[in-house]
Amino acid sequence: MKESRRDRLDDLYRHYARPLYYYLYKMSGSKETAEDLTQETFVRATVSLTFYQQEDVRAWLFKVARNAYLDEWRKRQRRKKIPFADYIFPMAEMTSPYGLPEDSAIKRETRKNVEDLLSCLPEQYRSILYLREFESFSYSEIEEALDLTENQVKVTLHRARKKLAQLADEQWREKND
C-alpha cells in the first residue's frame, strides 16, 4: 500500500470509525457485531478507496457499513437467529450524581419506549431516521448511503416519521386504556 493511501485510510478511520461504530451498534444492538462490522467496513473500503473523493466519502462509508450490516443480517436470518437485540440504543446511561433519581428513571423509561418503537420499524426506516436525526446527514448524503433518489429519500423519511408517530400513538393509547 502506498504511503499516501495508507495515510488517507488512517485519516478516514480516525474521522469515521466512531460514527460508523455507533450507527452499526444502533442497527445491530450488539457491541461485538458493531465492532466486527466497523472493521469489515474499513476492509471493504481499503479495496475500493481509490475512486472515491473526499467530499462524498462519508456517505459512501455509511453505504458500505449498511451493506456489511445487511450481509450479516442475512447470514443470521439463514441461521434462524434474530439479528436485533432487544435494544437499539445502549442501556447504560450516564447520569449526573447530582440529578434526581426520578429524572433518571423517566429518562430510562422514555429511552426504552423509543427503543421499542424503533425496533418495530423496518430496517430502511430505522436507517433513514438514524442517518438524518442522529448523524445529521443531508438528503444527498442519504441518497448516496441508501441508494435512493432525492424524492425517495424525502418520501421514505416522511413515511418513517409517520410510522414512528403512529406507533407512539398506539403505544400511548394502549397504556391509557
UniProtKB/TrEMBL annotation:
The keyword Cell inner membrane does not apply. SUPFAM superfamilies: Sigma2 domain of RNA polymerase sigma factors, Sigma3 and sigma4 domains of RNA polymerase sigma factors. GO terms for biological process: DNA-templated transcription initiation. GO terms for molecular function: DNA binding; sigma factor activity. Pfam families: Sigma70_r2 (PF04542), Sigma70_r4_2 (PF08281). Keywords: DNA-binding, Sigma factor, Transcription, Transcription regulation. Residues 12-79 form the RNA polymerase sigma-70 region domain. Belongs to the sigma-70 factor family. ECF subfamily. This is RNA polymerase RpoE-like sigma-24 subunit. It comes from Cytobacillus oceanisediminis.
